[in-house]
Amino acid sequence: xxxxxxxxxxxxxxxxxxxxxxxxxxxxxxxxxxxxxxxxxxxxxxxxxxxxxxxxxxxxxxxxxxxxxxxxxxxxxxxxxxxxxxxxxxxxxxxxxxxxxxxxxxxxxxxxxxxxxxxxxxxxxxxxxxxxxxxxxxxxxxxxxxxxxxxxxxxxxxxxxxxxxxxxxxxxxxxxxxxxxxxxxxxxxxxxxxxxxxxxxxxxxxxxxxxxxxxxxxxxxxxxxxxxxxxxxxxxxxxxxxxxxxxxxxxxxxxxxxxxxxxxxxxxxxxxxxxxxxxxxxxxxxxxxxxxxxxxxxxxxxxxxxxxxxxxxxxxxxxxxxxxxxxxxxxxxxxxxxxxxxxxxxxxxxxxxxxxxxxxxxxxxxxxxxxxxxxxxxxxxxxxxxxxxxxxxxxxxxxxxxxxxxxxxxxxxxxxxxxxxxxxxxxxxxxxxxxxxxxxxxxxxxxxxxxxxx
Length: 454
Description:
Blueprint: H1 3-27, H2 36-88, E1 98-101, E2 107-110, E3 119-123, E4 128-134, E5 138-143, E6 146-151, E7 155-157, H3 158-168, E8 171-175, E9 179-183, E10 192-197, E11 201-208, E12 211-215, E13 221-225, E14 229-233, E15 239-240, H4 241-285, H5 290-298, H6 300-304, H7 306-325, H8 337-345, E16 357-358, E17 362-363, H9 365-374, H10 384-387, E18 392-394, E19 404-409, E20 412-421, E21 424-430, E22 434-439, E23 447-450
Helix pairs in contact: 1-2
């Protein structure tokens, strides 16, 4: 029998007993003596009814408590579910298990969570790393070829890292197809300005539905289809001690080679200077008499001969050609960064040539910097990334003429320029523009280095 049926049966039985008892009381006459059996039945019935009422009350209380407990349990589950859902939400999923440096200079990566432990590398400004284990004070990270520990004070994590990158790092569009058309406007019918290759990264200057505006240089930009590019932050990876040492060793080697080249050139220049002196002495010894020197001037053949008037014109380019290859201005050993900047400005307008290092016939960005610094006695590698490991890093608020500014694309340094002062740089920009001047912040520099002082 169900619980409800039992309750109904008890109610009916109770009602029957109550009705019978009431009927008995109504038939008792005054002065009559109560029958003991009737009194016993009545008392038993009263006790039974009372117990049933108590049980019903207890059951109602138990049911109410059960409902309350169930409701509380359900509320707890819902609250926990909401907390877990909130915890799982991630605004910047690309920074899950990632961290970024929030420093104005590079931070050391150490072998253990101890400030006295060995340094295995450095993580630069806007440097990104994968979090292996986050402790209370130190975090084990991995970036580039480096793996080690950094204090938590110098890092931001997860969504906080994403927010930091949003506010402090520039964005780039990475081409994800073999080649991609860059159009004049955000329209597939617009004129095609050029084609860009897969894997290349460009600073983003605009975003509209289905299109991304990219900067080909600081003056030229166009639109590419958003379907074929990946948008990401421009971040840097760590540089290991071994990589820095290799760069330093290469720098020393190139400096030695450059010093030897300059020595040989100086010797050659000395020999060239001595030879004309000896020839002049011989000419003086054999100088013709006045009568001999006057004789040719009287003959009209020499002045009228067209060969002599045309010959200088044909020979002039040959005499000027060395100046085209080697700049006439040779800085002194005591030159400053201002002198270097002024020297570099002489080559504005000359062509950009990928892989080139000629100041006049064409150079790419690092080749231009390498050639300019070579004139001042400094030997740099033909690589923007490697050049960033030279000299002393300075903050952007402290840059001076002659300093090198580096620009990051796709997480690595991809461009270098020479700061000339007044918020301006000179650099080998693109094939379309050649060597030119630009505003230093046409794209946010990721690093500044000083090699030559003022």
